[in-house]
Amino acid sequence: MAAPRSTDPRDALIAWSVVAVTLGTILLANFAPAARQAPASPAQDPGCREWTDACVTCTRAGDGTACSMPGIACVREAPRCTAR
After folding, report:
1. Which side of the chain, N or C, has fewer Cβ within a 10 Å radius?
2. Residue 29 in 3-state DSSP?
3. Which residue ranges run through the membrane (predicted)?
4. Does 21 or 7 have the greater pLDDT score?
5. Hey, where are the domains in the chain?
6. What strands, in cross-sheet order, belong to the sheet with 50-52?
7. Is the pLDDT of residue 82 over 70?
8. Which residue has the higher pLDDT, 56 or 41?
9. Own/partner pairs for 45-52, CB < 8 Å, 24+ apart?
10. Residue 3 has pLDDT above 90, yes or no
11. Distance CA 5, CA 46 (A)
């Protein structure tokens, strides 16, 4: 038995709005330049393997640095080393 189809045009508007907001969030997260920057000071310390600014966590790997994406309601703090 098939589900009944809605004929209310507002349903389509709501669905397309959700799709647009989702795509916008994905694009912003992937292309925002500040989102990929590593915290400055521990990145300069070669003895620090992992550091955070409470929004982004970065890890020093053999071939470079890998950083996480910031959360939605993130409040940046001073960068600090979390693993040596």
Report:
1. N
2. helix
3. 12-32
4. 21
5. 9-83
6. 64-67, 57-61, 50-52, 80-83
7. yes
8. 56
9. 45/81, 47/84, 48/81, 48/83, 48/84, 49/83, 49/84, 50/81, 50/82, 50/83, 51/79, 51/80, 51/81, 51/82, 52/79, 52/80, 52/82
10. no
11. 61
Q: Would you say 39 and 56 are in contact if contact means Cβ atoms under 8 Å apart? A: yes
For residue 9, the model assigns a pLDDT of 82
According to DSSP, residue 36 is labeled G
Q: How many CB atoms are located within 10 Å of the residue 76 CB?
A: 13
Single pTM value for the model:
0.51
Tell me the residue type at 30: N
The C-alpha angle with vertex 23 and arms to 17 and 29, in degrees rounded to 5, equals 135
Indicate if the pLDDT at residue 35 is higher than 70: no
* Average pLDDT taken over every residue of the chain: 82
Q: Which two tokens stand for residue 39?
A: 């915290």
